[in-house]
Amino acid sequence: MQQIPDVIREIPLNYYVWFSAALFCIGIIGVLTRRNAIIIFMSVELMLNSVNLLLVAFSSYKADPAGQIFVFFIMAVAAAEVAVGLAIIVMIYRNIQTIDVGLLNKLKW
Amino acid sequence: MPILSVLIFLPLIASLVVAFSPDQFKAYFKWFTLGVTAIELAICIYLYQNFNHDVADYQFLEQLDWITLPLGNLGIGSIDYLLGVDGISMPMVLLTGIVMFVGALSSFQIEQKERGYFSLYLLLTGSVIGCFMALDMFLFYLFFEFMLLPMYFLIGIWGGPRKEYASIKFFLYTLFGSIFILIVMIALYLSVVDPVETAVRIGLINDVSEITPQIITEVQNLLKDLKIPSEQIVHTFDLRFMPDAGNFLPDSWLNILSGTQIFSFSARALAFILLMIGFGIKLPAVPVHTWLPDAHVEAPTPVSVVLAGILLKIGGYGFLRIAYPIFPEVATEYAFVIVAFGVLSIIYGAFNALAMNDLKKMIAYSSVSHMGFVLLGIGSLTSEGINGAVYQMFSHGVLSAMLFLLVGVLYDRTHDRRIDSYQGLANKMPLYTAMTAIAFFASLGLPAFSGFIGEVFTLMGGFNSPLIPRWLTAIAAFGLVLGAGYFLWTLQRIFFGKYWVRQFEGTLEDLTFREKSMLYPLAILAFVFGIFPHLIFDLTNATISELLKLF
Amino acid sequence: MNAIIALSLFGISNLFLGFLNNRKILLPATLVFILIALGLNFADWNHEYYWFNNMLKTNNLSVNFVTIILLSTFLVVAISRSFGDDDEHSHPAEYYAILLFSAVGAIMMVTFENLIMLFVGLEILSVSMYVLTGSDKRSLRSNEAALKYFLMGSFATGILLFGVALVYGATSSFDIHGIAQGVAKAKEQMGGAYGPLLYSGVILIMVGLLFKISAAPFHFWTPDVYDGAPSIFTAFMSTVVKTAGVAATYRILSISFPSVYGLWGNPLVYIVCATLIIGNITAVYQQSFKRMLAYSSISHAGYLLITVLAKRPETNSSLLFYSLAYAIATITAFAVLMVVSEAQAKNGKADESFEALNGLANNNPLLAFSLTISMLSLAGIPLTAGFFGKFFVFSDAFSNPSSLFKWILVIAILMSTVGIYYYFKPIIAAYMKKGEVAKIELSPLYKFILILTTTLTILLGLAPDLVKNIF
């Protein structure tokens, strides 16, 4: 178990930062461009996971466990969010048989 | 007895009484209101009788601590409940007493939602009179803003067909102005120090009552040298301390020596201009007058009376109470601009009045023109000018009340205000004709009536003032000719010739007893104050000479 | 901080109370629960305590914020009328429990000492609100609002978290005071410049939080969500969520990042101006009272941010006073809106437009009067609490020597004039327009709450030092 931080440290920190930033941006673009609620939701999860990766990397490099603890919190809370989010999406699907956010226009933007 | 507080709180309490009394007393609301305003008038006359003419300072002072706010390292903020009258406010308080009483009489014709109407009317009375007596700027602002609400509802609910438009326009205009005043108020508040309370705080004296001029000077010197820790400084809205440059924090925005620049403007000049816009809207001065004709046309008669008779005066009063004493050097610098706007109002108002076919609009524009004289008098910065301006405000209050009542008389009978709908009324309504003639002649400045004194003195001030060119005052004098023009022309069109009224079958009754009881006293007042101008000048003289020492 | 524990337990016991067949007991029970929590909260007064291994910290500022949050929750619960009599589709026990849970989240957001707690608190509050927004399951508007809120909310959370991660990378700490030290150290190492991690981290944290308090340009979800959610939860969202969000923003910016003021201050200036302008100008064009209130909540976020930006020692108390005044007035407005829109319902759909209020004053003087006072307070007319709120905010901006504040002031002042225009629309409708609203029967509790909030608004307008001295 001691080696895991060492394994992580084999790759330079910069790479982690850039990789997470790239994942994060892909997530943002997904949220902004896709119209299917599930895909948007997955993009959001992608954003959260990029955060997790970044936190773990920082945590290993700084030899500070707090970052990894934060990751657990994020995972737990994200799970709760998924539960509520999927429930909402199912509720919508039951009402209008679609989950295309473009068709949700009862409320004007 | 705290007589000034009675003057404010009597109508406020009466307003609550009306608002919460059961419906079966509906018929007595108007009598109750009339009674309350009569008591107010009596108190105003009592004040007038007991006012010491030789004292320039504030009299009947009442002071209570109201709000004390800890401001962290800015010091302490103090807002006082501070009332008093001096030579400038005394005529206005008296005017308020008179006009409100007459307005209450005129309100007898209100026939729907009486409870709301009389409750709001009393609320208006209290806040207007409070505005004239408040010596704490915050309190002043509070009354200033607060009177808009009852006014807004009075126009908006009991008004004519375009009442919504007129009332919201009135409200937004004046509120826009009062926000300017609010900015200056906050800036002043952060700049001005209460030397008395500060002396108590830093332990120079133990109690407010021990204050002497030496201690005040000592505090001011300490302030200048930044020797007072900022937590100990008491900020104040007290208008009595604001004219003294020594009470300003040395590095504050509005200190005359700090020379702060905002948007490459001197901060003090900017503050003065904001105040002028704020009060100018209320006055109203051209080009921010456009709310006035609309509000007047839509307002019911008594509300028009109050609006023209008192509310406009608050603009002029604000100049004299706040803008001029606090920023004297800016006022001197901008004297020309202010007078130019005054003259513009006189001429523009008069030409518009000449063109109007709606009687109420005609009178509204004549108000704009007449209030231009107030601006001229104040801007001249001479004793004659300012005394004349206060006189003109008083006189215009009485006369415009009378004019709007007269329009109301006609409107009640025919529901038509167009000048060209009437001809030869003199045959059918001799008393009405006589009253209208008196009001018109007094307004256009016939000697022996009050309008004459105000206009002549403001013009004299304008000619004597070294700050403004003669030609400007000469143009203002031309406004008198125009005034004579529209009043006489209207008189001729409505009252002379063969009797004819457009689309009106019934007979026109002459003045009723109630109308007589409103109009006769006002006519007598216009006459009495025209012959004995010292009735007002005695009040104002001492205070205004004191004020002029600042310039 | 026992309030957090107590409220969580009360929430759970509320769920159990739902099993009883007596629904009438839920409302009074919840009110009592909140009052107990309020009492526990006051026990922390004048004590500076760290709780849960330095995760939370209470001081007088946080006690005051918690008081405002619990007071708002109390008022919202009191006007909830047990969520109607519709037995089949309403679940009052669950709603009350979720309201209590979200209050816990809000409390964590104003007392957090560690960014983990900020995140957890924010999520507790947000997830509860997603559920409550969509609670009207058969209404498509409610569904749509819930989905939008959920997607936007989790998107904002993602942004916030990425910011947190970057700041962690720059400062090696999640503790807000630790971050402040880390920032100072980093600044020293970089010779006064900010590293890219810190720079983007602070901005992303700020953006994430501004999403939650719906400051422009991150406000676009607000009108839809506020409009679509059941009115009672909109009232909760626009008061409790907003207060907690602003408090959290203020807490993190003022404690963790005061030394990099330029970094977040400069963008915030433009955000404040945009929020004020967009919130107020768009509100003018609204036909629906509820939507207008949504835009009004955006504009008030702008005023609140002014004082956060001004960074004066008085900011604490100004923020508290403004939030309190705003919360009370907004809840009053929603209380009136709810009963009137139901009474005016057409085809079973509540009518939330301004027209629904036409002629309200004729038969319902109390409702019309409360509405007037609340609108005046929101517009900032003197003798109401809102006036002093604005007054304190403007004073703060004034006393900040930076010349940027003069521009902010100019905009804020112009916009508060615009505000008066639309806040008067309901008053005009209630008093001046012709129309008929039948006499609405109010329960004694409802009446009491209306009178209480109206009195409080006027009282705070007459004597602001009553609470300002405490804050």
Automatic annotation (TrEMBL), chain A:
<comment type="subunit">
    <text>NDH-1 is composed of 14 different subunits. Subunits NuoA, H, J, K, L, M, N constitute the membrane sector of the complex.</text>
</comment>
<dbReference type="GO" id="GO:0050136">
    <property type="term" value="F:NADH dehydrogenase (quinone) (non-electrogenic) activity"/>
</dbReference>
<comment type="similarity">
    <text>Belongs to the complex I subunit 4L family.</text>
</comment>
<keyword id="KW-1003">Cell membrane</keyword>
<keyword id="KW-0472">Membrane</keyword>
<keyword id="KW-0813">Transport</keyword>
<dbReference type="Pfam" id="PF00420">
    <property type="entry name" value="Oxidored_q2"/>
</dbReference>
<feature type="transmembrane region" description="Helical">
    <location>
        <begin position="15"/>
        <end position="32"/>
    </location>
</feature>
<dbReference type="InterPro" id="IPR001133">
    <property type="entry name" value="NADH_UbQ_OxRdtase_chain4L/K"/>
</dbReference>
<keyword id="KW-0812">Transmembrane</keyword>
<dbReference type="GO" id="GO:0030964">
    <property type="term" value="C:NADH dehydrogenase complex"/>
</dbReference>
<keyword id="KW-0520">NAD</keyword>
<feature type="transmembrane region" description="Helical">
    <location>
        <begin position="70"/>
        <end position="93"/>
    </location>
</feature>
<dbReference type="GO" id="GO:0042773">
    <property type="term" value="P:ATP synthesis coupled electron transport"/>
</dbReference>
<dbReference type="GO" id="GO:0048038">
    <property type="term" value="F:quinone binding"/>
</dbReference>
TrEMBL record, chain B:
<feature type="transmembrane region" description="Helical">
    <location>
        <begin position="334"/>
        <end position="355"/>
    </location>
</feature>
<feature type="transmembrane region" description="Helical">
    <location>
        <begin position="170"/>
        <end position="190"/>
    </location>
</feature>
<keyword id="KW-0812">Transmembrane</keyword>
<comment type="similarity">
    <text>Belongs to the complex I subunit 4 family.</text>
</comment>
<dbReference type="Pfam" id="PF00361">
    <property type="entry name" value="Proton_antipo_M"/>
</dbReference>
<feature type="transmembrane region" description="Helical">
    <location>
        <begin position="117"/>
        <end position="135"/>
    </location>
</feature>
<dbReference type="InterPro" id="IPR010227">
    <property type="entry name" value="NADH_Q_OxRdtase_chainM/4"/>
</dbReference>
<feature type="domain" description="NADH:quinone oxidoreductase/Mrp antiporter transmembrane">
    <location>
        <begin position="134"/>
        <end position="190"/>
    </location>
</feature>
<dbReference type="GO" id="GO:0015990">
    <property type="term" value="P:electron transport coupled proton transport"/>
</dbReference>
<feature type="transmembrane region" description="Helical">
    <location>
        <begin position="474"/>
        <end position="496"/>
    </location>
</feature>
<feature type="transmembrane region" description="Helical">
    <location>
        <begin position="362"/>
        <end position="381"/>
    </location>
</feature>
<feature type="transmembrane region" description="Helical">
    <location>
        <begin position="88"/>
        <end position="105"/>
    </location>
</feature>
<dbReference type="InterPro" id="IPR001750">
    <property type="entry name" value="ND/Mrp_TM"/>
</dbReference>
<feature type="domain" description="NADH:quinone oxidoreductase/Mrp antiporter transmembrane">
    <location>
        <begin position="260"/>
        <end position="472"/>
    </location>
</feature>
<dbReference type="GO" id="GO:0042773">
    <property type="term" value="P:ATP synthesis coupled electron transport"/>
</dbReference>
Automatic annotation (TrEMBL), chain C:
<dbReference type="GO" id="GO:0008137">
    <property type="term" value="F:NADH dehydrogenase (ubiquinone) activity"/>
</dbReference>
<comment type="similarity">
    <text>Belongs to the complex I subunit 2 family.</text>
</comment>
<keyword id="KW-1003">Cell membrane</keyword>
<keyword id="KW-1133">Transmembrane helix</keyword>
<feature type="transmembrane region" description="Helical">
    <location>
        <begin position="366"/>
        <end position="392"/>
    </location>
</feature>
<feature type="transmembrane region" description="Helical">
    <location>
        <begin position="232"/>
        <end position="253"/>
    </location>
</feature>
<comment type="function">
    <text>NDH-1 shuttles electrons from NADH, via FMN and iron-sulfur (Fe-S) centers, to quinones in the respiratory chain. The immediate electron acceptor for the enzyme in this species is believed to be a menaquinone. Couples the redox reaction to proton translocation (for every two electrons transferred, four hydrogen ions are translocated across the cytoplasmic membrane), and thus conserves the redox energy in a proton gradient.</text>
</comment>
<keyword id="KW-1278">Translocase</keyword>
<dbReference type="Pfam" id="PF00361">
    <property type="entry name" value="Proton_antipo_M"/>
</dbReference>
<feature type="domain" description="NADH:quinone oxidoreductase/Mrp antiporter transmembrane">
    <location>
        <begin position="114"/>
        <end position="415"/>
    </location>
</feature>
<protein>
    <recommendedName>
        <fullName>NADH-quinone oxidoreductase subunit N</fullName>
        <ecNumber>7.1.1.-</ecNumber>
    </recommendedName>
</protein>
<feature type="transmembrane region" description="Helical">
    <location>
        <begin position="292"/>
        <end position="309"/>
    </location>
</feature>
<feature type="transmembrane region" description="Helical">
    <location>
        <begin position="25"/>
        <end position="43"/>
    </location>
</feature>
<dbReference type="GO" id="GO:0005886">
    <property type="term" value="C:plasma membrane"/>
</dbReference>
<keyword id="KW-0520">NAD</keyword>
